[in-house]
Amino acid sequence: MTLRAFLFFALGTASLALAEADMFKPSPAQQVELGKRAADDLRKREKVLPSSDPRVRLVRRIGQKLVKTFKDDKPWQFSFDVIESKQVNAFALPGGPTFIYTGLLDKLKSEDELAGIMGHELTHVRKEHWAYAYRDSQEHQLGLTVLLMVFRANSNVANIASISNDLIFNLPFSRKHESEADTGGLHMMIDAKYNPQGMVDAFQLLANLAGKGAPPEFLSDHPSDTRRIKAMQSQIDGMKQSFPPSTPLRLDRAGYSAVLTPLWIR
C-alpha cells in the first residue's frame, strides 16, 4: 500500500471512529461538573434570592413539575434559582443549574409562559446542546490532523479544566438547537399539564420588547423571529386537542404573588 493510499484509508477509518467517539464533546458527567462550577461563580457575582422568597418557590415548583416528566437516565442535576436584576433573561447551564431573572418574571402574565421558557431551557440541557456546540467550535478552531484522528479518535480529549466560565455562559446555540428546544419545551409543558400556548405568548412578548428598542438579554442567546413563533403555533394547532386553562401570574416587587381571575387561552 502506498503512503497516499494509507493516508486516505486512515482518514476514512478515523473519521468514522471520530463520529462515534465525539472526542471533543464533554461527557454528561463533565457537563454536570462544568455547570456546577459556573453556577457557583455566578452566585458569587449576582444577587441570588433566598429559598424563602415567593418568586424562588414559584420557579422551583414549576421546575420540579417539568423535571418529573423526564424519562431518561442521564445524570443531570437540575437546580432552580432566581437572580434579582432588571435583566429580562433566563438560562440553564450545562448539567442542569437554571437561573431566572426577576426582570423576566416582572414581564410574564402566566405560569404557563414561565413554564414555556423553562421547558425550552431544560431541553437545551437534556439534548446536550452546549456540549455539541463546544465540540463543533473545537473542531472548527483546532482542525483535525490525520495523526490525531488515527491515534486518538477513540479518546475523549475534552479538557474541562481549560474551559472558561465565560465560554460556558456565552457559547451560542445553532438554529437547529433552538428549534429542537422549542419543540422539546412544548411537549414538556404538555406532559406537565401546562397550556403550551404560554410558550408562544412568552416568545411573542419577548419579540415585542425587542421591537421597542434594545432586545431582551434572553434574545441575545435565543434569537426569536416570526418564523419560530409561527412554527410553535403550528405545532400546537396541529395537535388538535384541548389544554388546561392558563394559570395567571402576578408578582409585585416585594415578591408576593396573587392569583387573578382565570384566563382562558387556547
Description:
This protein is mostly helical. The protein has helices at 3-21, 28-45, 54-67, 102-105, 111-126, 129-142, 146-152, 165-170, 175-191, 197-211, 217-221, 226-239; strands at residues 79-83, 90-92, 97-101. Helix 9 runs parallel beside helix 12 (226-239). The longest helix is centred in the first third of the chain and has 19 residues, at 3-21. The model is unreliable at 5-11, 13-21 and 253-266 (pLDDT under 50).
What layout of secondary structure does this protein have?
Layout: H1 3-21, H2 28-45, H3 54-67, E1 79-83, E2 90-92, E3 97-101, H4 102-105, H5 111-126, H6 129-142, H7 146-152, H8 165-170, H9 175-191, H10 197-211, H11 217-221, H12 226-239
Helix pairs in contact: 1-7, 3-5, 5-9, 5-10, 9-12, 10-12
Our estimate of the beta-strand percent is: under 5%
Helix content: 55-70%
Largest sheet: 3 strands, mixed
- The averaged pLDDT comes out at 83
Numbering strands along the chain, what is their spatial order in the largest sheet?
Answer: 1-3-2
What does the oligomeric state look like here?
single chain
Poorly predicted runs of 5 or more residues: 5-11, 13-21, 253-266
Helix tally? 12
The class by helix and strand makeup works out as: mainly alpha
**Span from first to last CA?**
67 Å
Characterize the overall form: globular
Q: C-alpha Rg, in Å?
A: 21 Å
Total DSSP E strands: 3
Order of helices and strands: HHHEEEHHHHHHHHH
Essential attributes:
single chain, 266 residues, mainly alpha, three-stranded mixed β-sheet, globular
Compact summary:
By secondary structure, the chain is mainly α. The chain is built from twelve helices and three strands. It has a domain at 28-129 and 169-239.
